[in-house]
């Protein structure tokens, strides 16, 4: 990790922000190389998860008002376990202390009391000053950043802890754009914020990060994913059953078999695991250091009914890079209940159905004098109750809640009846399937898995074997020497390649070997060199980063050739 983090800082991939003022933990800058790499990863994600799937993208604000997070459950349930050192005052994530110092892998799934006991039983100490932490309170700490919207403290707001809520809250409008028909998917790439107790491992656990999330809205009864498109894809699965077994093992299987054998319960989750597997391979994640791990019972987020994480191995640790969650109707039901908007959709029946419907027709000449100003609310509450639980009207009296008070009404005054009616459809709350990707973690994985050292002409070289699609610079263009017109020609070639959409960089400083090393170290897959021979016959040498092989090609062929090499349509070895 140290080597990579050092390279990232030195070559402009990422580094801690505000270092001029001492830096602040959990906030990072993506430098010139890193910002380009991040953008290429986002574009690749957009292509695979959005464009190829026929979904649409939105961009919502990062600050949202408090009621959104009351409804979503984040105000109450989006907590991590905090333990504070009584000596130095440093805050620590209690579950991480346990995972780092015992054999327990998923302490996040444990209750506060269990974590407290484990700290005492294992005699865990403060990692900063070595003071014993036994007996210190372990408490829930809410991870959201709070702010005031506008002057004064009238309207509290929060920086969104996931981009997803920006999509769910807009569902009433988004469903109209989808012409009120399911399934449809909405994606978003944007910032999310979490006030992590102890940010760590460079950009892997930070307080501000980019998520790429897809919320796929489906009718759980009628919509099915195109599973046949991914059924043959091979995956490594670590199911909850295997994790709980004494000697749990990985399951090497295909998506189709995993569904048939019930290892992955949801076809939709299985579908997106297949899509994900294809994508991680495409962007250069090392498949020998990759697995899908199912969440354990106590580990799932409050909104999730099944969840699988894509995990990559980094320095011997498994790091979650994506969560694939079946969120069911949790979020839309919550927003439907807490807001005044309609988060349901109308499901048309193939044939109209005759159904029984319970209604009320309250006697307002009774409710008015008896309950005064509350009468209208009581009438509405009676209708809601009739739809939800008609047995409540079985007795002589029925009790409803209106405006926080209870009211008892004689059933004969409610006008309750059950009638047969013909209905053409019904309102349903869509279910949501969500792949949620942390772009920073994917970026770190891609760099880590691409980081290699080898020996060239007796010298150690550091190389980032990045996929050409992702490399911040596609081609380095050099003159053998900046004289006799070679410099001008190389500058012209670089400018021409840029007009064809390539990230091309010109370099004439130092000897040619040193220039190659500089490009190898930032993952540039191809380098072009103008030499004396080329000045004569309009050719250049084209060098490939990983093999260091060189071929001579015509300058006029470069744009098409590089496009084919970058897309993978042509292999360098075939030139
Ligand atoms: N909408 C679902 C959701 O937010 P999550 O598992 O909490 O699910 C999704 O987050 C992804 O976001 C993770 O798989 C991870 O890649 C990334 N992520 C979460 N917290 C992060 C943090 N503090 N720093 C960097 N990336 C983070």
Proportion in helices: 25-40%
Mean pLDDT: 95
Hetero compounds: glycyl-adenosine-5'-phosphate
- Supply the number of helical segments: 19
Q: Describe the biggest sheet? A: 9 strands, mixed
Radius of gyration: 30 Å
The low-confidence runs, each spanning 5 or more residues with pLDDT under 50, are none
* Class by alpha and beta content: alpha+beta
CA distance, first residue to last residue = 36 Å
Main-sheet strand order equals 3-10-11-21-16-15-14-12-13
Protein architecture, described:
This protein is α+β, with helices and mostly antiparallel strands and 575 residues long. Helix content is 31%, strand content 30%. Helix 2 packs across helix 15 (439-450). The longest helix is centred in the N-terminal third of the chain and has 20 residues, at 32-51. It starts with a helix and ends in an 8-residue tail after the last helix. Bound molecules: glycyl-adenosine-5'-phosphate. The site of glycyl-adenosine-5'-phosphate (GAP) has 18 residues, from strand 11, strand 16, strand 21 and helix 15.
Quick recap of the structure?
This protein is of the alpha+beta class. Helix content is 31%, strand content 30%.
Keywords:
single chain, alpha+beta, binds glycyl-adenosine-5'-phosphate, 28 strands, 575 residues, five-stranded mixed beta sheet
Fold topology:
Blueprint: H1 2-10, E1 14-16, E2 28-30, H2 32-51, E3 56-57, E4 63-65, H3 66-72, H4 74-77, E5 79-84, E6 91-93, H5 94-101, H6 112-121, E7 138-142, E8 146-149, E9 155-159, H7 164-168, H8 171-177, E10 184-193, E11 208-218, E12 234-238, H9 240-244, E13 251-254, H10 255-260, H11 267-282, E14 290-294, E15 306-314, E16 317-328, H12 330-338, E17 345-359, H13 364-371, H14 375-388, E18 397-402, E19 405-410, E20 417-428, E21 431-438, H15 439-450, E22 451-456, E23 459-464, E24 475-479, H16 486-499, E25 504-506, H17 512-521, E26 526-530, H18 532-537, E27 539-544, E28 550-554, H19 558-567
Parallel strand pairs: 3-10, 12-14, 24-25, 24-26
Antiparallel strand pairs: 1-2, 4-9, 5-6, 5-7, 8-9, 10-11, 11-21, 12-13, 14-15, 15-16, 16-21, 17-20, 18-19, 22-23, 26-27, 27-28
The structure holds glycyl-adenosine-5'-phosphate (GAP).
Residues 162, 164, 194, 196, 205-206, 209, 211, 213, 320-323, 434, 436, 438, 440-441 line the site of glycyl-adenosine-5'-phosphate (GAP).
